[in-house]
Design a protein that fits this description.
heterotrimer; A alpha+beta (662); B mainly alpha (221); C alpha+beta (254); A: alpha+beta; Flavocytochrome C3, Chain A, domain 1; Methane Monooxygenase Hydroxylase, Chain G, domain 1; five-stranded antiparallel sheet; 18 helices; 20 strands; 38% helix; globular; C: 254 residues; Fumarate Reductase Iron-sulfur Protein, Chain B, domain 2; 2 domains; two-stranded antiparallel ribbon; 7 strands; 13% strand
Chain lengths: 662, 221, 254
Amino acid sequence: MATSPKLDAKIPKGEIDQKWSKYRSTVHLVNPANKRSLEVIIVGSGLAGASAAASLAEMGYKVKVFCFQDSPRRAHSIAAQGGINAAKNYQNDGDSVYRLFYDTIKGGDYRSREGNVHRLAEVSGNIIDQCVAQGVPFAREYGGVLSNRSFGGTQVQRTFYAAGQTGQQLLLGAYSALQRQVGMGAVKLYARHEMLDVVNIDGKCRGIIARDVITGKLERHFGHAVLIASGGYGNVFYLSTNAMGSNVTAAWKAHKKGAFFGNPCYTQIHPTCIPVSGDHQSKLTLMSESLRNDGRIWVPKKAGDTRKASEIPEEERDYYLERRYPAFGNLVPRDVASRAAKERCDAGFGVGASKLAVYLDFSANMMRYGQIEANKQNIHNPSKEKIRELGMGVVKEKYGNLFDMYKQITGEDPYEIPMRIYPAVHYTMGGLWVDYNLMTTVPGLYALGEANFSDHGANRLGASALMQGLADGYFVIPYTIGDYLSEEIRTKAIPTDHEAFVKAEAEVQERINKLMTIKGTKSVDHFHKQLGKIMWEKCGMARNAAGLKQAIEEIKKLREEFWKDVRVTGEANEFNPELEKAGRVADFLELGELMCMDALNRNESCGGHFREEYQTEEGEAKRDDDNFAYVAAWENKGNNAWELHKEELIFENIKIAARSYK
Amino acid sequence: MSKENFLQSSLGKKLVMGITGLFLITFLIVHVGCNACIFANDGGVLFNEVCHFMSHNFFIRVMEIVLFAGIFTHMIQALLLTMKNNKARPIKYAVTNGASNSKWYSRSMGVLGSLLLMFFVVHWAHFWVPTKVAVFTGQEENTFEHMKEIFSKEYVVAIYLLGIISLCYHLLHGFPSAFQTVGLNNKKYTPLLKKAGATFAIVVCTLFAAMPITVYLGIIK
Amino acid sequence: MSHGNMNLTLKVWKQKNKDAKGALETYQVKGISPDMSFLEMFDVLNEQLITEGKDPIAFDHDCREGICGMCSMFINGRPHGPVKGVTTCQLHMRSFKDGDTIVVEPWRSAAFPVVKDLAVDRSAFDRVIAAGGFVSVNTGNAKDANNILINKDDADDAFNAAACIGCGACVATCKNGSAMLFVSAKVSQLALLPQGQIEKEARVLSMVGQMDDEGFGACSVTGACEIECPKGISLENIARMNREYLGANIKSKH
């Protein structure tokens, strides 16, 4: 049971596979005429935001969309590479809604809500249908049907993809649906606008304060409901696969205005990223998980081996994932693969100049594909070179853009030498706590997509982020928002000269003034890098109590220093990227502390949260279901103080067990 | 749906450019064919016969009007498009590096076209006007002799060669582009088309150029 | 903070806002590593400017992995610099030499007004998409995905057209400031797929109309856009759009 009355997850009663359909049939509706006078604000234009905006506008609501980029199409969903899961069972390999549900719960290390995850699996098929109807060019087979690939944490092929640009294609699909509504006047678009606060009136969320980043002008916007779809907070680590602008600010402002923050310590470290090459680095680049489908991961068997990859004979290579996890091999979930890579490197088996990398090798599969291709083309007795050449062609078609990107960044040709990869921060499972309706603890304030905490537990499976973002936007919020808005049909638009708006704007202005007047000596990036270093070292892939306590103190100190010594150049009333960054880093400096607190509180290892004190003899994560099968929902008490509330996780359909991929 | 008039749209204008361009290309075939008659080297008998036919045949007379309409349409559209295009970039780059991504003549169609126009004025004054005068006054014009006289001057030959070179480059770009503009471009045929275009431009212009050169050098008598 | 051993002279366009007059300013950067991306080199420069108390250079960027389409620098006369098939963020300093002078300008187009320094406003592209770059299918209208069979070649061609990241390099490099490659990529994607057939005439007419209204120039087939496009969008798409446009005008009942 939850320890706060606010933490009512509102999961519908009934059998797991009946909950959603029953909910949909009984949820309150808003009639079309009333929809026209109900206004919805959406912050963020990624998969969740854009799909929600398009869907709600199609239904007749008056929608406003805000994004800080120059166009909604830039949202970071665009960078997702590998694919999107759906329980279509097109491959006839035994997939089902239940199996996707089960895989997701297990993949999340039994730290997510059954009701939400089952709903996600149920609507997953509709997403593919919707996207295809929009003209999203998914990969196809020669017969014209959709193609699938494998992803981590599953034994079926349920991942739909568009080369290595699935996120791009899905986002452009949602973006085009959004732009259609913009063209029809149903959505008003505010690009290059950053949300800087939410406005609550009489206990309900009623609008936002946004800054036009071109003019610096603060604006007040009223909405009967506000949807935060602003993505995750991985950039708290400074180096991550997130976009440079990805930030926690919108979610954090919501948190400070009453929305509980769920499981902040659950961070996904993605195993296949291009290793850091120097301290100039501004971001890390992911190499899609789909590569693990066709590549094999290995390190030399001999520690400190300095030979080139090609000079190390087969028997001296340690395919450690295949060795440790024979059932799933290279396709173990991300948290498991990341820790295994870290373990090898820490033990001295790492490769490359930094020794903080492992090989991702395509040579074996290139030959396998080459042989298949030779058969297809009726080439008999092909030479080894010919096979390799044909195989290279197949790999190029499947992953060409990723290989090119790798070459561009590292200057090495991955067709010739194995890729070097290392884990990097990629996704945050934690986020604003939401109930079954995706509503936060503030009535009228919702969180969608990566910004909420809901579906992935302690670890997200590959190709499930796109699924969740679009599920929330296309198929969940259009129903669940009715539950709230049906009660709001009598609420007239509140004029933005209401004192709550005036006050919120004044507070935002004051904070901006403060940032502008410090005129210290160090750049915003300086502080961001410091914070990132603390977080990566002490709250990254492995955590322990002593380190976390230290981190909390260090972050407090850094935050103090920031507010005394940061230098923000330029003016507040102009296009000022430094000011934007400063505001975001200020929020990260608060979030970082909460993440460490949450990690310190969770005396167990689960999914992406690995506490060194809690591991099995084989080095696997050791959960403590008796004491920690709950969602940690943190309430902000002001002045960087928080109170922990717990939402107990109840598993009625899945037997909670030790997670094994062996 | 947009209310934009087809001919006012940028695509419509370009289509007119392409179609008139292709039409002018067909005219060049006729023109170069007539010119080539001098290579019979029969003292201009065949050539003059063809010239007479060309200046008196009713169908050719009608086509002449169409031809001029084509040339002027091509020019006017080019002018309108250039004005629109100039407006599309009011502030120019300090540094450009067009050579890295396109052929100089593709970027210089306007200049080449203007040179061609100047050349046409000279060319019309040399040949078209006297022929018309002759037709209207009922005189029998010996075009071959007239041509020999004109091509006896070096500067005239130079102007013609310059004009023909302009034409050649104009065609090198214009021929394949016209097909692209009317919507014909695919992986299979476009490479062939590009080769055909280049061959056409070079063959036609070589034949054109051969006329003043051979006449000037006295090879054609 | 020193990272490497390249020293460079940068001439960068500075412009306070869209109404101000801009000019190229000269900066020196030292200690650049060949492993840095072009934008990381700008990070170093900006850090240096902030330390000196000067105004850093504003530029657009976000994902830094070549897919969001936000970065947009015109480098030594070429959009996204000298390397084929990459965006500015994926351009690395190993493509330059110690002692080089690099001129960096914003995209220049009447339809892309400068916001500040190197950042421009590309909302014209959004409006072109809003005019017709979609299939009119509301959420929930769809039938089972495999009920629509698509020939693999068509699906691949549609994907290749859809790979456009909307960065605007085509407009920036075109001597006419034409947006034909961008617009045709979306027109093509949907024209190649069965889902796009119902609205194909209305779509092309409407998108071309919006493109012209935005003040982009016309195509003169120099092919520069195709060469400079970081995603290799083909000129074939422009031909297809020309075809579609002609066909739509012939069929149009209005």
